[in-house]
């Protein structure tokens, strides 16, 4: 069993009681590096942000078990947007190339699960102008921000969705479920993806972008204890009723892009 953890890549979760001292140190590191301050509580709030949240160059922001603060409250989403959508991240994340690799139809219906500040969601919406993008997050502040961002950028096909920790709570079936930097934060991924299968349209797929297991210690992303190999991810997906349909190891320096279809 995994410990209770967040689906958020927005700031990493820590075990509050066991790692309080480390948590304070890591928060200080984040602030020193320019990350906006987060507020914490002791509730078991599981986040849904998947955009590189909190995983800095050396993966700081994790307790020894790979997770930490159970209750981040992320205020000032505009500050987080600036932090997580930096030119430095874009250089290795290659969001436009990732979206292009999805091969989306103009009328595709997509779920960006763990949308966070909308880093990928706005690009997905532009790539499917006649379709829809459900930008899913379980942090209410981020959901509100996503809605405002869609309105401000004139993206009428981007719909902010309040997700749940065990389900994206999609309002309708989709062609693509997209997750970037999220799977290693899901508490019970087998059950989660088994449930997601019911939200896929015929021929639908799940696309997972996440960090390579064998990344060097100074690479962006979480520490080695949190990273999953392709075999581990595929084992989870197989148990949930999927098979690996495509594997892209070449597009991104630090990540793999895996496409799964229902059995």
Topology:
Elements: H1 20-32, E1 39-41, E2 71-73, H2 77-84, H3 87-93, H4 95-101, E3 109-113, H5 121-127, E4 132-137, H6 140-152, E5 158-162, E6 174-180, H7 189-196, E7 200-211, H8 230-239, E8 242-248, E9 255-262
Parallel strand pairs: 3-4, 3-6, 4-5, 6-7
Antiparallel strand pairs: 1-2, 7-9, 8-9
Task: Provide a descriptive summary of the structure in words.
This protein has 263 residues and is of the alpha/beta class. The protein has two domains: 20-84, no CATH class; 87-262, Rossmann fold (3-Layer(aba) Sandwich), CATH 3.40.50.150. 28% of the residues lie in helices and 21% in strands. It is built from eight helices and nine strands. The protein has helices spanning 20-32, 77-84, 87-93, 95-101, 121-127, 140-152, 189-196, 230-239, and strands at residues 39-41, 71-73, 109-113, 132-137, 158-162, 174-180, 200-211, 242-248, 255-262. The strands form two sheets. It has a seven-stranded mixed β-sheet, with helices on both faces. A two-stranded antiparallel ribbon has the order 1-2. Strand 4 (132-137), helix 6 (140-152) and strand 5 (158-162) form a beta-alpha-beta unit. The two termini are 25 Å apart.
In short:
The protein has 263 residues and is an alpha/beta fold. It has helices spanning 20-32, 77-84, 87-93, 95-101, 121-127, 140-152, 189-196, 230-239, and strands spanning 39-41, 71-73, 109-113, 132-137, 158-162, 174-180, 200-211, 242-248, 255-262.
């Amino acid at each position: 069993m995994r410990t209770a953890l967040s689906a958020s890549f927005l700031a990493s979760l820590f075990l509050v009681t066991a790692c309080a001292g480390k948590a304070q140190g890591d928060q200080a590191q984040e602030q020193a590096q320019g990350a906006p301050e987060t507020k914490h509580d002791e509730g078991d709030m599981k986040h849904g942000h998947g955009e590189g949240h909190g995983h800095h160059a050396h993966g700081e922001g994790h307790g020894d078990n790979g997770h930490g603060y159970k209750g981040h409250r992320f205020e000032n989403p505009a500050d987080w947007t600036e932090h997580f959508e930096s030119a430095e991240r874009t250089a290795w994340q290659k969001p436009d190339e990732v979206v292009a690799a999805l091969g989306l139809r103009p009328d595709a219906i997509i779920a960006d699960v763990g949308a966070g500040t909308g880093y990928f969601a706005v690009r997905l919406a532009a790539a499917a102008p006649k379709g829809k993008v459900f930008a899913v997050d379980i942090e209410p502040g981020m959901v509100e921000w996503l809605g405002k961002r869609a309105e401000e950028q004139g993206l009428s096909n981007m719909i902010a969705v309040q997700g749940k920790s065990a389900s994206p709570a999609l309002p309708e079936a989709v062609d693509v479920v997209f997750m970037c930097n999220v799977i290693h934060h899901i508490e019970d991924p087998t059950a989660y993806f088994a449930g997601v299968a019911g939200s896929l349209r015929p021929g639908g797929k799940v696309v997972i972008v996440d960090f390579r297991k064998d990344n060097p210690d100074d690479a962006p992303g979480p520490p080695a204890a949190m990273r999953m190999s392709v075999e581990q991810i595929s084992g989870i997906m197989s148990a949930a009723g999927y098979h690996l349909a495509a594997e892209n190891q070449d597009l991104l320096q630090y990540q793999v892009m895996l496409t799964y279809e229902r059995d």
